[in-house]
Design brief:
Blueprint (H helix, E strand, L loop, with lengths): L1 H17 L7 E6 L1 E5 L9 E10 L4 E11 L2 E11 L9 E10 L6 E9 L5 E8 L3
Parallel strand pairs: 5-7
Antiparallel strand pairs: 1-5, 2-3, 3-6, 4-5, 7-8
Length: 134
Amino acid sequence: MLKKFTILCLAIVLFGSCLNDNEPIFKYELLPIDEANVPASFTFGEQDTIAIKYTLPNSCYAFNNLYYEYQDTTRIVAARALVSLDVYCAEVIVQEEYKFVVNVSQEEDYVFKFWKGTDSNGENIFEEFVVPVN
């Protein structure tokens, strides 16, 4: 009888541990671009590389991917981070670099808008670079 009771209690604990509140234990957050290194010009039909620097504010932040949005000849760029919500975060600020390839497929100049954050009114702030295409 004690053996069955122990197995039943163990099953309840295991089943209960699988249930959660469906709350995520992480979130995604855009990080401002600290610095961008863009070429002076592009050559149509070729590839070129752009390097960005961004800052992870503590150890709970990890680079996830590049936010890269097309709007006609404009490209909006930011770093997307995965932020862990269920762990201790060491207060360590780390600046990282990420390089990405641009396939030059348009003959018009490229306008890159690197996201710098928001102002006191919640409006987006961008640093803009125009890269001519040869």
